[in-house]
Amino acid sequence: MTTVVIRGGRVLRPDMTVDRADVLVDGETGTIRAVGDVPAGDEVLDATEGLVMPGLVNAHTHAAMTLLRGYADDKPLDRWLREDIWPTEAALEPADVRAGTDLAMAEMIRSGTTAFGDMYFYMNEVAEAVEAAGLKARIAHGIVTVGKDASAAQDDLEEGLYIAKSHDGTADGRVRTAFAPHSLTTVSEEQLAAFVPKARAAGVPLHFHANETRDEVDPIVAERDERPLAYADSLDMLSQGDFLAHGVHLDETEMGLLADRGTSVVHCPASNMKLASGMAPVQRLLDAGVGVALGTDGAASNNDLDVFDEMRDAAMIGKLAAGDPAAVAAETVVRMATEGGNRALGFDGGRIEEGAAADVVVVDFDAPRMTPVHDYVSHLAYAATGSDVRHTLVDGRVLLRDRKLTTLDLDAVRERAASRAADLVDRAG
Ligand SMILES: N[C@@H](CCSC[C@H]1O[C@@H](n2cnc3c(=O)[nH]cnc32)[C@H](O)[C@@H]1O)C(=O)O
Ligand SMILES: [Zn+2]
């Protein structure tokens, strides 16, 4: 099968209008070949009562944390990481990460996600998993050096660089990489100063957590007498193509810096609400010209990987943060989940038009929850969930056909993840 016609549906155009059109995608070139009246293809996907839209991007996650879904809830970030998550992650084995990543990808493909930004451990396994499942991902080994001796810290930094260098552009370009110091407080200034230039020389972007909680921002300000992102900038950590997760507690100057440097913010509204980290100033970021994408963060702080939920949460909390129901409107969150995510991760998806990457999903509009349809974009933002997704294609290859995964065996993936998760918790016990 090289070409697929998506027939009988409506299409969400780049200008956010919707009209009746078929779409022809080419699995050979990975692009959209035609939109409108299209010639026949090798395979047909039915899109009747559906909307053909760009695939969603989950720009910040820790995919294999699906194994820790529901393991520790209802705590603030610092205690949650130190008391529950990090001790358990210390017992992770490569096969756990493979099982958790496969589970995450099954969930993402079923809910219309075509690309994700991943930061975790055992990234050789993640690269293999992404290659096999057919998704796109920008992957990075998350580096934490705080609490480690000098040689373990050095090994972690080297591993981060090795992963960034060795997998970039693999899987026909579906796997890209980043260099990922976990945050500005979990990797030291000397280590950042030594390794950021190495990442720049390797030509990979940076991906890190920043300005997530007050407890993280205040000590930096107290110790250095400068804002976290001024500190990051002094270490050359804000460039075009870099992306940081969260950006909850930002001042005007930091927002200006992000806009000037071309660094994207990956907004993770559900994680921010669940850990009570705060409300990111999303409308102000957009007004300042900062690129904003959406992320679920790991499944242990969300607890699902459904970007439809994230769109809705982003709109809701964005209005609350701005004190303005007009803030972070429906069209805005749909753009954040599509164009914004592709821009943050450096992929060429996010538009249904000739020549664009064929990262495409078909969303059914026949559920009671989606009836009547006054406005398609409104439903995408406020009513749809991942379970409304019927087909998912990446680079023109069908990964979900009529709600059935084509590259992953769902029962086997669920079984393996459940048993590895149980063993992991026992070992960590
Ligand atoms: N190699 C590192 C692992 C870092 S991966 C990225 C880390 O981010 C953690 N994480 C997940 N969600 C969040 C969050 O919201 N803020 C900060 N860290 C998080 C996650 O548990 C994981 O440990 C080590 O030796 O510990
Ligand atoms: Zn995170």
From TrEMBL:
Domain of life assignment: Archaea
Keywords, in A-Z order: Hydrolase, Metal-binding, Zinc
Catalytic reaction list: S-adenosyl-L-homocysteine + H2O + H(+) = S-inosyl-L-homocysteine + NH4(+); S-methyl-5'-thioadenosine + H2O + H(+) = S-methyl-5'-thioinosine + NH4(+)
Free-text function comment from the UniProt entry: Catalyzes the deamination of 5-methylthioadenosine and S-adenosyl-L-homocysteine into 5-methylthioinosine and S-inosyl-L-homocysteine, respectively. Is also able to deaminate adenosine.
Protein family according to the UniProt entry: Belongs to the metallo-dependent hydrolases superfamily. MTA/SAH deaminase family.
This protein's record includes keyword Hydrolase: yes
Record protein name field: 5-methylthioadenosine/S-adenosylhomocysteine deaminase
GO molecular function term, any single one: metal ion binding
Record-linked InterPro entries: Amidohydro-rel (IPR006680), Deaminase_MtaD/DadD (IPR023512), Metal-dep_hydrolase_composite (IPR011059), Metal_Hydrolase (IPR032466), MTA/SAH_deaminase (IPR050287)
HAMAP family: MTA_SAH_deamin
Manner of cofactor binding, per the entry note: Binds 1 zinc ion per subunit.
Names of the cofactor(s): Zn(2+)
Domain Amidohydrolase-related: 51-398
CDD domains recorded: ATZ_TRZ_like
One matching Pfam family: Amidohydro_1
EC number: 3.5.4.28, 3.5.4.31
Class of the enzyme per the UniProt entry, highest EC level: hydrolase
Chain positions recorded as Zn(2+) binding sites: 60, 62, 209, 297
Annotated binding of substrate, by residue: 89, 182, 212, 297
